[in-house]
């Protein structure tokens, strides 16, 4: 249990070496941290790392094959939503282009039916907007539950 909490903390604070140690079965045997452990508001380590912009930690977490696909917080936000809100386009790329599996639908919706593109548009993150539309194929015409498209919000 303690290792699970430590993994959340290390991910939030960008401590890559600690994340690696907590996930290493050679060092901790059966006491390794659970990559899908949930903390406050149902956030996983990947939520924390994506939100804080810790690219190397995100890449490390993505290497774990037991990582939950599309982990959602208590308000249905994924790490992709958080990366879009914060303008971490490099993390958006990593999440949506994960080699092991696509981690997230590029048009996934949260509790207000906002997609990552809605949030990138709301906060004016041009690099993220361009990536989401041109490369990830996000739909710029999807409306949220209030009837707004990403361009309406921008």
Number of strands: 0
Task: Give the overall shape, derived from the CA principal axes.
Answer: elongated
Radius of gyration: 16 Å
Distance between the termini: 42 Å
As a percent range, the share of helical residues equals 40-55%
What is the number of helices?
10
Q: How does the helix and strand content classify structurally?
A: mainly alpha
| Strand/helix succession | HHHHHHHHHH
Beta content: under 5%
Structural description of this entry:
The model has no long low-confidence stretch (mean pLDDT 93). The protein has helices spanning 2-13, 16-22, 25-28, 45-52, 55-62, 79-86, 89-96, 116-122, 126-135, 150-153. Helix 4 packs parallel to helix 6 (79-86). The protein is an all-alpha fold.
